[in-house]
Every structure is written in structure tokens, then in C-alpha cells.
Design a protein that fits this description.
Keywords: Membrane, Transmembrane, Transmembrane helix
Radius of gyration: 17 Å
Pfam families: DUF6512
Helix content: over 70%
InterPro entries: DUF6512
Transmembrane segments: 45-61, 73-93, 99-123, 135-154
Shape: globular
Largest sheet: none
Number of domains: 1
Number of helices: 6
């Protein structure tokens, strides 16, 4: 799949997960969709959106693949990492310029930082795909993927008291 197409697919899937629960209020969507504007909820949506983008990509390229292991482990590794890429890129602007004073600027920066982060993720996975992964890398990737999936589902229902889970809409301005 073309790099730009995959980034676009990720952004579309992320948008669906961002608004999916708000629009439908279907309880089974809570583990995958955002249910508040907390940092955690956004990390969760990134994780699931990228995993879905990988599955979609696989459906389009599976007949052309020469090494399924390298395809999947490069993508699963980035699925675990991409939420943290977005934290690094998104927080760059607020750390330099402070709180956004305009909702429009906030939204534009969110889209740009999500695009850039996803682009970084796809570029890294394309390089990783050329590697032969040993058993320890595969094991660590699977363990981190399972921990991440558990973390995003469990903490949706039982968020620990850490600022990562705080809904910024509830903070005083």
C-alpha cells in the first residue's frame, strides 16, 4: 500500500474511532472509541486505528507478500509505538508555545501532528519490514501488543488516577 494512502487510511479510521461512540453511544465501542478528550483516549484510538489500518493493508497486499513475518512484526511493533510518536510530536507545539488560544489552531495542529506521526510510523515500518526478526523481538512485540490492548481496554473502564487519564474538558481554564 502506498505510504500516503496508509497515512490517510489511518486518519480516516482514527476519525471514525474519535466520533464513533459520541455519535452512536453503543457500549461495545467504548474499548475502541474515544469516550472523552483525555490523552489516554487519544492514545487508545491511535492504537486501534493503526491496527485496523494494518489489517486493511494486509487484505490488499497479502498475495504480493514475500515475508509475512516481517510484514506483521514491523507493523505490530509500530502499532505499539505510534501512540507515543503522537505524544512526542503533538506536545512539541504546546511545550514551545503554551496553551492553544483557538480551537481551530488546536484542531489543525492535531491533524498535522497525527499526519506527521503516522507518516513517521509508516516510514519506520517500511524499513523494519526489510529485517529478519529473531524470536526475542517477536516475543517482545507480541507481549507489548497484548499489554497495550489490555491497557487500552482495562483503563477505559478502570482509569487509574494519573493525569494521563484526566479529561482536559473538566479542568479549570
Amino acid at each position: 500500500m502506498n505510504v500516503q494512502l496508509k497515512v490517510f487510511l489511518f486518519l480516516v479510521l482514527f476519525s471514525i474511532l474519535h466520533f464513533g461512540y459520541d455519535i452512536t453511544h453503543l457500549a461495545f465501542l467504548k474499548p475502541f472509541c474515544g469516550i472523552s478528550e483525555s490523552v489516554f483516549q487519544h492514545l487508545k484510538m491511535v492504537f486501534w486505528a493503526y491496527l485496523l489500518a494494518n489489517v486493511t493493508e494486509y487484505l490488499f497486499v497479502k498475495k504480493k507478500l514475500t515475508n509475512r513475518d516481517s510484514f506483521w512484526f514491523s507493523r505490530l511493533f509500530i502499532t505499539v509505538q505510534l501512540p507515543w510518536f503522537i505524544v512526542l510530536v503533538w506536545y512539541l507545539a504546546p511545550s514551545i508555545f503554551g496553551r492553544f488560544t483557538s480551537a481551530l489552531i488546536d484542531i489543525i495542529w492535531a491533524i498535522v501532528s497525527s499526519y506527521v506521526s503516522a507518516l513517521f510510523g509508516v516510514l519506520v515500518e517500511r524499513n523494519l519490514e526489510k529485517w529478519e526478526f529473531n524470536l526475542s523481538f517477536k516475543a517482545v512485540t507480541i507481549i507489548l501488543l497484548v499489554i497495550s490492548a489490555f491497557f487500552y481496554v482495562w483503563c477505559t473502564y478502570y482509569p487509574p488516577y494519573i493525569d494521563l487519564f484526566v479529561n482536559p474538558e473538566l479542568l479549570p481554564k
